[in-house]
Amino acid sequence: MKIGIISLGCCKNLVDTENLIGMLQQSNQEITYNLNEADAIIVNTCGFIDPAKEEGINTILEMAEYKEKNCKKLIVMGCLAERYLDQLAEELPEVDCFITLKQYNQFGPILTEVLGEKIANDYGKCPQVLTGKPWMAYLKIADGCDNRCSYCAIPLIRGGYRSFDIDALVDQAKELAKRGVKELNLIAQDTTRYGLDNYGKRRLLELLGRCNEIEGLHWIRVLYMYPDEIDDELIEGMAKLDKVLPYFDIPVQHGSDRMLQIMNRRGSVESIIRLVDKIRETYPTPALRTTMIVGFPTETLEDVQLNLEFMKRVKWDRLGGFTYSKEEDTPSYDLLDELSQEEKNRRYEEMMKLQEEIVEAKNQELIGKTLEVLVEKQDGLTGFYRGRSVFSAPDGIDGEVIFKSEEPIEFGSFVPVTITRIKAHDFYGNRVN
């Protein structure tokens, strides 16, 4: 059977999709990228925020049109199916089967019944099939979340935090390296909590140390680090691991202590500043990335100003911003949201304008420096190569390094590039021979 798969949402969802593809291929099913010839289509959905929900519904409806052609079965899985199963089943009769997150351990029998093909129940036990660039992979080290931020529905959808077995993760990382993976990105809703639930202590540093010894891996990057769980031992320990990048993705959400308390975020603004200072004392050129929410219920102009002052103090290398939107069944849903969308947008634009100014000034320090770059593509017209440095995760929002090279370069290679010019988050330069 030819099966087409659409994966929506975050990289954690993508790993679920890659595990599903591995299971289907082990059962001798053919994965096709041509949906016109697909006998069945599976859509892996996100249900976190309104734009993701809308994208999920629109994609399902679009895929349903293929049932007028060759497609016999349309299957929907993922967070949207978990969160809105009854409503979706009633409103989308075009869908033949919904598979919730809790049913992933029964993928085999469910798909066998729906597809009429024998599918082994091996989800998560088969090799992860990489759907992106062959030199990069995500390693999901845990699922769920225990942080209970007042605006977030992830614990409601994904459940409590569950760390995966450390030996199994190391084996998986070794297998990925054997297949040519050079950049390994560790992901979870909260990577810094890894091990606390099943081992009684945080073991992220140990996991990083064991992955650091794997032959073939060149870069190891950690994403989604909760600030109050990044201690001196982790920072100093990471600095001793030559493959672990000094890339700190630390979503802090706000620069006002009052807002952090209402958001049910642990720690304080001052503790975050101390953390950033420690990182910059330990590494000569670390990459610091964060996310911020503006327009949260009860946010005052004083809170906005405190947030801007916090940004000026920290000077984040990368910052992603969001305007607050209500999420049903979360604690913040019942808070009085008095701000108009226009005012939220104004505050967002003010924040991002400041961030642009900070980054523009900060990036000038990188001109003349040489960065290691993972080469990923080449422009057909100009011949310029494009790749990523320590400052850019593979999710496409951190910018690229664009450079000239007199000699041809194999994609997936690492080369030194001297930076000559910077435009926003994109760096321009020349390869060092």
TrEMBL record:
Its EC number is 2.8.4.4. It comes from the Bacteria. CDD domains: Radical_SAM. [4Fe-4S] cluster 1 binds at residues 10, 46, 79. One of its GO terms (cellular component) is ribosome. Belongs to the methylthiotransferase family. RimO subfamily. Catalyzes the methylthiolation of an aspartic acid residue of ribosomal protein uS12. HAMAP family: MTTase_RimO (MF_01865). This is Ribosomal protein uS12 methylthiotransferase RimO. The gene is rimO.
